[in-house]
Amino acid sequence: MIRKPYENNVSGKLSDKHFDIILKDYEKEQMALEKSIEHSKSILKNFEEDSIRADKFISLVKKYTDFSELTTPMINEFVDKILVHEGKWDNYERTQEVEIYLNFIGKFELSQEEPKELTQ
How far is 46 from 33, CA to CA, in rounded Å? Predict the structure, then answer.
């Protein structure tokens, strides 16, 4: 890419000023491409790590597809950590935030909808 402008510069067809401009543009483009490559590699690495964690979680779920009771070893395999925040009182009602982090997938978010009564 640089060979032709260099040859034109050496032969006098292209001034030093224009050659410097072309070279600087090439260097800027090269740096931008290198950053883009690094960013793409980072995204790919994150995707691969997410895939591995998802596969591990799916294997764990398959291990416990049929059970009659929830046991301590099962909970230990699924739950990474539980964070219990300080309770708050508001209009005589106490609320408390609890964060549950599952192994391989991170924070578990519950739906904010109120539970509905079952009708029979």
Answer: 20
The upper half-sphere exposure of residue 45, i.e. CA atoms within 13 Å in the direction of its Cβ, equals 6
Backbone CA torsion sign across 111, 95, 107, 39: positive
What tens digit of pLDDT does each residue of 71-100 get? 888 888 889 999 999 989 988 899 998 899
What is the chain's Cα-based Rg? Answer: 30
Q: Which two tokens stand for residue 72?
A: 């301590």
Among 100, 104, 102, smallest CA distance to 57 is for: 104
Q: What is the pTM of this model?
A: 0.49
- pLDDT grade for 116, boundaries at 50, 70 and 90: low
Tell me the residue length of the chain: 120
